[in-house]
């Protein structure tokens, strides 16, 4: 229907702004929800948004290492941790979900056991089926994709902030 969602907040400092804002297609503010924090209804660096075939809104709550799934009216439906630290999310027409994790492993000490890269799975079931690993697993900088998109042929594109690069991947 043309509604626009904005993830606002890019800091983990206490008291930071962290919310989702919804506008109609003319730019009129319809609603907002969330605040900075770790609990339900709270965000720490809401960094990515995507909508699936059921019109659910997926929020990459990067600082909290989770994806929150909402109705478009802000009702929390589910919380997923299996896609790791989401910096970017893309959901295709078949509800295949691609999640870019650019900060686990050598960047975030609390996430040492997690490999950075692009996780691929189902927006319907939440099952992760594949990982495209970061080509530079020992980097101390953000190196793999922070943004992710997929074209109609299934070619995956990862936007890399640290290296200032765009990588192209084909699913096997």
End-to-end gap? 35 Å
Beta-strand portion reads over 45%
Structural class: mainly beta
Task: Please report the total strand number as a whole number.
Answer: 16
State the helix count: 0
**What's the rounded overall pLDDT mean?**
90
Order of strands in the sheet with most strands: 6-7-8-9
Largest sheet: 4 strands, antiparallel
Describe this structure in words.
With 172 residues, the protein is mainly beta. Helices cover 0% and strands 45% of the residues. The protein contains no helices and 16 strands. The strands form 5 sheets. It has a 4-stranded antiparallel beta sheet, with no helix packed on it. A 4-stranded antiparallel beta sheet has the order 10-11-12-13, with no helix packed on it. A 3-stranded antiparallel beta sheet has the order 1-2-3, with no helix packed on it. A hairpin with a 5-residue loop joins β2 and β3 (29-33). It is globular and about 40 Å long. The termini are far apart. The relative contact order is 0.12.
State the gist of this model.
The chain is mainly beta. It is built from no helices and 16 strands.
Describe the protein's topology:
Layout: E1 4-8, E2 19-23, E3 29-33, E4 35-36, E5 42-43, E6 46-51, E7 57-61, E8 66-70, E9 76-80, E10 88-91, E11 96-101, E12 117-122, E13 128-133, E14 147-150, E15 155-160, E16 165-170
Parallel strand pairs: 4-5
Antiparallel strand pairs: 1-2, 2-3, 6-7, 7-8, 8-9, 10-11, 11-12, 12-13, 14-15, 15-16
Spell out the key features of this protein.
4-stranded antiparallel sheet, 0% helix, 16 strands, mainly beta, 172 residues
């Amino acid at each position: 229907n043309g509604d626009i969602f904005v993830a606002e907040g890019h800091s983990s400092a206490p008291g930071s702004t962290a919310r989702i804002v919804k506008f109609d297609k003319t730019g009129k503010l319809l609603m907002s929800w969330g605040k900075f924090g770790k609990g339900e209804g709270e965000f720490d660096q809401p960094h990515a948004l995507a909508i699936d075939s059921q019109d659910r809104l997926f929020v990459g709550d990067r600082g909290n290492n989770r994806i929150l799934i909402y109705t478009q009216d802000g009702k929390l439906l589910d919380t997923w941790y299996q896609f790791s630290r989401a910096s970017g999310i893309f959901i295709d027409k078949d509800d295949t979900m691609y999640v870019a994790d650019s900060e686990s492993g050598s960047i975030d000490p609390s996430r040492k056991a997690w490999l950075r890269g692009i996780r691929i799975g189902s927006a319907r079931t939440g099952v992760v089926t594949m990982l495209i690993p970061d080509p530079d697993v020992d980097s101390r900088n953000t190196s793999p994709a922070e943004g992710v998109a997929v074209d109609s042929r299934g070619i995956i594109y990862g936007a890399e902030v640290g290296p200032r690069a765009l990588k192209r991947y084909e699913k096997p």
